[in-house]
Amino acid sequence: MSGRTLEKLIYMANQIAREFAGQRPRDAAEATWDHLWHFWDPRMREMIVEHMRSGDEGLSDIARAAVERLAAPVEPAPRTQATEFNHLGDGEAETMSDAG
Amino acid sequence: MNLIKDIDRGTPASAEVEQVTLTIDGESVAVPAGTSIMRAASLAGTDIPKLCATDSMKAFGSCRICLVEIEGRAGTPASCTTPVADGMAVVTKSDRLERLRKGVMELYLSDHPAPEEATEMREMAEMIGVATSRYLPIADHLDAPCDTSNPYFDFDPSLCIVCSRCVRACDEVQGTFALTISGRGFGSHVSASQEEPFLTSECVSCGACVQACPTGSLQEKALKAVGLPESSAITTCAYCGVGCTFKAEMKGEEVVRMIPWKHGKANRGHSCVKGRFAWGYATHKERILEPMIRASIDQPWRQVSWEEAIAHTASEFRRLQAAHGSRSIGGVTSSRCTNEETFLVQKLVRAGFGNNNVDTCARVCHSPTGYGLKTTLGTSAGTQDFDSVEQADVMIVIGANPTDGHPVFASRMKRRMRQGAKLIVIDPRRIDMVRTPHIEAAYHLPLKPGTNVAVLTAMAHVVVTEGLTDEAFIRERCDLDEYAEWAEFVARPDHSPEAMEKYTGVPAADLRGAARLYATGGNGAIYYGLGVTEHSQGTTTVMAIANLAMVTGNIGRPGVGVNPLRGQNNVQGACDMGSFPHELSGYRHVSDEAARDLFEKLWGAPIDSEPGLRIPNMLDAARDGVFKGVYIQGEDILQSDPNTSHVAAGLKAMECVVVHDLFLNETANYAHVFLPGSTFLEKDGTFTNAERRIQLVRKVMAPKNGYADWEITQLLANAMGLDWTYTHPSQIMDEIAAVTPTFSGVSFARLDELGSIQWPCNEEAPEGTPIMHIDHFVRGKGKFVMTEYVPTDEKSGPRFPLLLTTGRTLSQYNVGSQTRRTANTVWHEEDRLEIHPHDAENRGIGEDDWVKLASRAGETTLRATITDRVAPGVVYTTFHHPLTQANVVTTEYSDWATNCPEYKVTAVQVSPSNGPSDWQEAYEAQAARSRRIAAEAAE
User: Fold this and answer.
1) Cα B211 to Cα B234: distance, rounded to the nearest angstrom
2) Interface touch A5/B788, C-beta < 8 Å
3) Residue-wise DSSP of B659-702
4) What is B153-283's CATH number, 3.40.50.720, 3.40.190.120, 3.30.70.20, 3.40.630.30?
5) Which of B23, B26, B629, B780 makes a 20 to 30 Å CA pair with B725?
6) Strand B89-91, strand B19-24: pairing
7) What confidence score (pLDDT) does residue A88 get?
């Protein structure tokens, strides 16, 4: 496993966590977890989880919390239009057409 | 293929709704009020002869050929400048008119006795029935010297009738004002700038004057060299994201010229120097036409048959997967290729390789647009059509340089400004849009590179704290809880322009003025480019733009909106087609089981539910020894991606790099297989431009390499065991439509019928969707996202005190593999470093001096241009030339959400140098070695 790649992954995880901390202060860890799950390939996720298990050096608090959730056997909801926009159930499902 | 002939109705269409009825030669005609008599006659099937009139420009009334008689009116008015009126009775043919027209035409012929073949002048002389002039040649211009300085067209004043069409085209259509009529009376003549040769004048070689010229005085060199065209086809330009439509005029298999198609809805009959003239790369001697392979990159290439190349590639990919796992290989799609070709590459990766390791060059340009706009508005695309600019009152241009990057659209913006629209430019450089003839931006906010989020959040602060919000729009269209939180966030004192000034360098008063203008100046439209996306906070900036549009109600109608100006011809399409490693076509995440199911059933193959690797991740994984092979179609990642040495190391670590391209590009130096590609002239398909407009690309010549690119991908797929049997790209589009809801109404037949279609095109919008989010956002309620400014970690300091930002120039295109192989190099033969006079003086640097440009990532050398276009502390260069390799110095910092590289901010030092660096010399030697082709096979 490359130290260079891991270093980049730690940087990227912290960068994502820092952004979500600014965007969604109350659930930044969850948002970071969801992002890592849906945008990082399995090997990248495994590398960051392994790093967390072996001491988590360099990870911010939010990033660490997100990676801890990555390690748990729970998956975030799949990304569908309904889950992404969180509006099914508001009677607006019919407005989801891209025809805008 | 027949020769398509345009109808020129002489003057532009009137926008009036009210109808006026008149008679022309006794026939009743109804046309919109404001229509000229000339146009009305043309619409009624009566052609009035003309020379100075053409329907792309306002009437001028100088040639006196188009005279008519009007019952009850004295004289013979010009039909081009006389508008219709109710009850008017017009006569276009009479003995008197014939006599007048013949007399005028004879005067023209006295100076120009032999009109050029296939010109309007010749046609009109024949129409009027005049072959010679009875007037003696007392004086003429036949000895006037021809200006052949421009590489693409000549100006022969001996053929010029001084009708001013060229001057007006330069003014009205292009907006450069490079031409004028100098002199008086018989000495009047067309002059480029101040009597300069066209090449060195202010002329930008857009071709509008050539197109407008009725006499052949301004004419394409190719027309003279090749001869008159025999056939033509309507097709789409393969350069920038404007997506201009052209009429490709052909003589046999040879292109004679590309004429901008006036019915093209993206370009409305205009063009730029690239699309109009720079297609010669298609026949350049360096184009590779035979497949080649080699065992290792230090060997020369060996030309092989297509069968061997494809079988070898498939065998290598399967070997690598067997040895290193199914995820050890991947593919890269191209924004230069068609939708159909892109769709096939991602299908090959997903259904053939069995993983989602597919990415596209949008990774390094507009990936933050996709993420940011989908999050806030619900769709990964711009909201408007280009025509929308005609109703914009205030335009913000941020991080874009339209006159160079999107010149045809820039002309439309400039025209709108001449009509009174205001412009706000947010850019570290004083781009041409800030001030050029007859236009001037109301505000230029010259921010420090990397502070877009701070500027936009401060603008939102002004809007919210000064009560400039559109409360009704927000209440009806947006999530109110999120809005309330966001409004409280931006209203904080630390987001005020005054507080932000220390980061941005933008005077607070100017920023306040700009925010007020955007919020209160009428229809507000935001246009942006890579100066927004290519930052650590690229996605955040896109969301800040969406916030600003929503809070001012500037979305969902003509004249407003959020408009990403896409860099390449098919960036939008490549993204739409499922080129990203986490998304299937139509932006559906691979974790969406229902979406996967649709593809699995159609393709008969399982789709991985896990996201794949992005390009930078592929390179990291390659250096880690787990990613071993890649199929790269139409992209030069070595030259275009950041930190060149890292890219090189990643490529070098792979065992099978397949480059599918027109030329042995820089990436091919590290390739094991080269598959020669086809140009846009040699294939059918579609491109999707920046306004979501899907347009047909039509084959006008046989592929010189033997196959269209989609066929090559199909050969590879078949060799890997997939049973694809496409015989035409229209079948691929049918498949795209079947699995992509936003494309469900698109087909080649429908595109033929409508000319073009803006997606979404489905049952609800059978003819497409010019403006999005009209009644509601695609995501339901508009989402305000808090945009905390986070300074980039790429900091200037004592070692690297300057900030480098990069961009492109008018005559060149991205890594230059096409434009460097055309005569466009006369305008830009090397990348230059723009540096402010103060910074240059401090370093002892003079104009044209060689300088070393060093960053934490690497160093290169290039020559300096000293200019106050850049602010002190900022330097700028382009990345068109491989020997400069500007990306040797750019870093791997990237956008937090998408990994789009931070090309726009690199801390650098600049110092005097003697010439090319050791690295450049070594690279050049290595590239030359790598491009060797084994002699025995090459013969």
Assistant:
1) 16
2) no
3) EEESS--TGGGG-SEEEE---GGG--EEEE-TTSEEEEE---S-
4) 3.30.70.20
5) B629
6) parallel
7) 40
pLDDT single digits (tens) B441-476: 999 999 999 999 999 999 999 999 999 999 999 999
* pTM of the shown model: 0.95
Per-residue DSSP letter, B11: S
φ/ψ bin of A58: left (φ > 0), alpha (ψ from -120 to 50), beta (otherwise): left
**Arithmetic mean of pLDDT, B528-543:** 97
| Residue B670, token pair as written in the block | 């590290």
Contact indicator for B356, B583 with CB cutoff of 8 Å: no
Q: How far is B794 from chain A (nearest CA, A)?
A: 13
Put simply, whether A5 touches B (Cβ < 8 Å) is: yes
Distance CA(B638)–CA(B667), nearest Å, equals: 5
Nearest to A24 by CA among B785, B205, B682, B309: B785
Q: Which residue has the tokens 């009047």?
A: B188
- The full length of chain B comes to 939
Alpha-carbon span B126 to B287, nearest angstrom: 45
**Across the 100 residues of chain A, what is the mean pLDDT of every consecutive 10-residue run?**
86 97 91 96 96 93 96 86 53 39
Tell me if B624 and A44 make a contact (CB, 8 A cut-off): no
Instruction: Find the DSSP H helices in chain A.
Output: 3-23, 28-39, 42-53, 61-71, 81-85
Helices (H), B788-844: 837-842
**CA-angle at B135, arms to B131 and B140, nearest 5°:** 95
Which H/E stretch holds residue B619?
helix B615-623
How far apart are alpha carbons B685 and B904 in whole angstroms?
Answer: 33
Q: Name the pLDDT band for B631 (thresholds 50, 70, 90).
A: very high
Residues 468 through 487 of chain B touching chain A, CB cutoff 8 Å: none
B367-564 is classed CATH 1.20.200.10: no
Band of pLDDT at residue B936, cut at 50, 70 and 90: low
DSSP summary character for residue B834: E
Å from A74 to nearest chain B CA? 14
- Do the chains contact at A5 and B536, CB–CB below 8 Å? no
Secondary structure E strands in B627-682: 629-633, 656-661, 673-676
d(CA B836, CA B828): 20
- Identify the bridge partners of residue B528 per DSSP, sorted by sequence position: B398, B564
Cα atoms in the Cβ-side hemisphere of radius 13 Å centred on B648:
13
Helices assigned H by DSSP within B494-537: 497-504, 508-520, 530-533
Nearest residue in A to B376, CA atom: A85
What fold, for B802-929? Barwin-like endoglucanases (2.40.40)
In chain B, domain spans: 19-115, 153-283, 292-361+573-585+610-739, 367-564, 802-929
Pairing of strands B69-70, B89-91: antiparallel
A26 Cβ under 8 Å from any chain B Cβ: no
Q: A12 touching B, CB under 8 A?
A: yes
- Specify the 3-state DSSP secondary structure of A89: coil
| pLDDT above 90: residue B118 | no
CA–CA dist B773, B34 (Å, integer): 33
Q: Which domain holds residue A14?
A: 3-96
Instruction: Check: CB of residue B370 under 8 Å from CB of residue B498.
Output: no
Determine which helix (DSSP H) or strand (DSSP E) holds B259, and give its type and residue range: strand B254-260
Q: How far apart are CA A47 and CA A73, in angstroms?
A: 16
Mean pLDDT of the B315-323 span: 98
ipTM over 0.85: yes
Tokens of B247: 């009429």
Mapped onto helix, strand or coil, the DSSP state of residue B435 is strand
As given in the structure block, the two tokens for residue B210 are 């050539």
What is the Cα–Cα distance from B752 to B726, expressed in whole angstroms? 20
* Nearest-angstrom CA–CA distance, B403 and B811: 11
What CATH number does the domain located at B292-361+573-585+610-739 have?
Answer: 3.40.50.740
